[in-house]
What we know:
Strand content: 15-25%
Distance between the termini: 37 Å
Number of helices: 11
Radius of gyration: 19 Å
Largest sheet: 10 strands, antiparallel
Shape: globular
Helix content: 25-40%
Structural class: alpha+beta
Amino acid sequence: MNHPFKELQRIAATAALVAAGVLLVQGQEQEPGVEIKPARSAKHNDLAHQIFETMLQVHGVKAGHRPVHAKGIVCLGTFIPSKDAASLSKATHFQAAQTPVTVRFSDGSPDPYIPDGSPNGGPRGMAIRFQLPENNETDIVSMSYNGFVVGTREEFLALQKAVVATDPAQPHPWPVEVFITSHPRALKFVQENAIIPASLANESFFSNDAFVFVNKNGVKQVGRYKILPKAGARTLSPDEAKAKPDNFLVEDLQSRLAIAPVEYQVIVQLPNPGDSSSDPSAVWPDDRQTVEIGTIRISSAVADNATVERGLAFDPTNLTPGIELSDDPLPALRSEVYALSVKYRRHP
C-alpha cells in the first residue's frame, strides 16, 4: 500500500477528531428496548488530553482554528417535527410546531483554506443546535460517513499516533500504512471519504453514536440519527471536482439559499437485537426500521460567518429531557476533547 504525502493529509484529516462525531468507543452489545446506562469512565479525562495533544501534531493544524473541520459556514433555519416524532421522544422540539436551529456545515480537514473539491476534505460535518424555550438548547453532531473510523477510543489514539509518527521520507511501510491495512473499517473509511458531494444540499449526514429516546410514557428506544438531503444524494467525479472553484460548496449553498430553503429529512434508525449500540464503527444495515422525526429547513447563511462560527461550540452531550446518552462512551469523551479544542482555538 503506497500513499503519497497528500494521501497522508487526508488520512490525518479524516481520522482526526471531527465535529460530526469523532472519538472512539468500545462496549457490550445491547438489545433495543433494554434500559442502557450511560457509559462514562474516570480515565476519559487523561485519554482526552492524550488525544487532543496528539491531534495538535497532525499536519495542517493552525492556531486559532478548529483542529479539524476548520473551514465551515453557519446557517439558520427551523426544525419541523413529523407526526411520529412525539411518539418516539418527549423532547420539546419533537412536540413543538417548529424550533429555530443554527447549523454549521464544514469540511473535515484541519486546513481552513482547503479547496472544497479536495479529496482531503472529508468527512464533512453538519452540527445542529436546536434553540429551545427558556434559553435552553440541544445539539446533534453528525458527519458525512455512516460509521466511524475505528471501534475503540484506544484505537483512535493509536491511529493519531501512527499519523504523527509517519515520515514520508522514510521507507515503507509507514506507521499509518501499518495501522490502516490492519484495520479494514479504517481503510474503508479513508477510501470512501475521498468522495466529494455535488452540493451540501446533496450530502447525507450520520450521528454514528447511539442515543436513547424516551417518550411521555417512559418507553425507551435506542437509535441513531440519519440526516438525508431532500434534493437527493449526488457526487462529483474527480475531474468534475478539480474544475470547481475552491469555495464551491459554500458558494453553491449561498446561491441556493438566495432562491429557496434547503431541506433535510431527519430519521432515527432503530437497531435489531444484537446490533451494537456502543461501537460507532459498527454500521447497522439499511434494512433496519426507521422513524421519520422531521425536517430541517435551512433558510439563510449568517452575515458575519467568521465571528459567529468562532463563538459556536457544539457538544454531543448537550441533550434535553427525552433524549439520553446510551452505553456508547463516545459522546462523553468527545465532550471533554471539544472543551480542550474550544480553549485552544480561542486562546492559542
